[in-house]
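User: Let's play a game. I give you a shape written as tokens, and you guess the letters that built it. Ready? Here's round one.
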């Protein structure tokens, strides 16, 4: 079992912060949302987490140098409220390390008297959804009901399977610590190479309403347009190649 090393960039004095998690997963929906929140709100990095439980690989960056996979926490005060955002390149690799990581994060959040936890993710569909729905579950009915007014579907039983990884464990394990938590899940295509930008956009809309983030949709709309154009070009190229082979 690997221990988690936390490098804290700045000492934090927080008042009942909201903790929002967006690590890689289905369609990378959660990560897309968390990264946009960090960029658009100009949040700054307050800690890095590392463990030998992370995948045994490195990434090549824009400078053509290698980087170890990282998980980071960012902070921003917005509307008089403290927010912490968890994002990164990867998730812990196995069940034990996933539990260990989640407990470590909950230790931190409990120390900060965290008021609520929001986890973000995707629901894998057999076809690409044109208008993805957002679903919400959690560890407290009253908290879940707060999202219903934002046109979020709170009837998940029989529709959504197990919520795997940190996104699920944060909601489940936080119940033992009396921290209310909810998971926002957007429909996305279940293919491992698919990027769930449309689902991410729908979750952003919900968070905008819930926390008055006022995040512009311009950037993600541009990314969706670019993604669609690239995929249309690939489809044409494949179709042309198939015709030439006939």
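Assistant: Ready! My guess for every position:
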């Amino acid at each position: 079992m690997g221990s988690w090393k936390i490098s804290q960039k700045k000492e934090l004095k927080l008042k009942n912060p909201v903790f929002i998690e967006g690590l890689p997963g289905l369609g990378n929906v959660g990560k897309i949302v968390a990264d946009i929140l960090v960029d658009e709100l100009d949040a700054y990095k307050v800690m890095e987490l590392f463990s030998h439980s992370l995948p045994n690989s490195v990434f090549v960056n824009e400078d053509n140098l290698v980087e170890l996979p990282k998980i980071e926490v960012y902070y921003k005060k917005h509307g008089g409220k403290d927010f912490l955002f968890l994002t990164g390149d990867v998730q812990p690799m196995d069940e034990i390390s996933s539990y260990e990581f989640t407990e470590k994060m909950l230790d931190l959040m409990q120390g900060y008297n965290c008021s609520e936890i929001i986890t973000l993710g995707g629901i894998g569909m057999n076809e690409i959804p044109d208008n993805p729905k957002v679903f919400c579950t959690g560890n407290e009915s009253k908290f879940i009901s707060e999202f219903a007014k934002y046109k979020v579907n709170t009837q998940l039983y029989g529709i959504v399977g197990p919520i795997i990884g940190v996104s699920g464990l944060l909601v489940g394990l936080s119940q033992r610590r009396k921290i209310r938590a909810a998971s926002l899940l957007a429909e996305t295509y279940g293919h491992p190479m698919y990027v769930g930008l449309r689902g991410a956009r729908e979750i952003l809309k919900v968070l905008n309403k819930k926390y008055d983030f006022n995040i512009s949709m311009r950037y993600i709309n541009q990314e969706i347009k670019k993604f669609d154009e690239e995929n249309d070009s690939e489809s044409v190229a494949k179709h042309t190649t198939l015709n030439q082979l006939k």
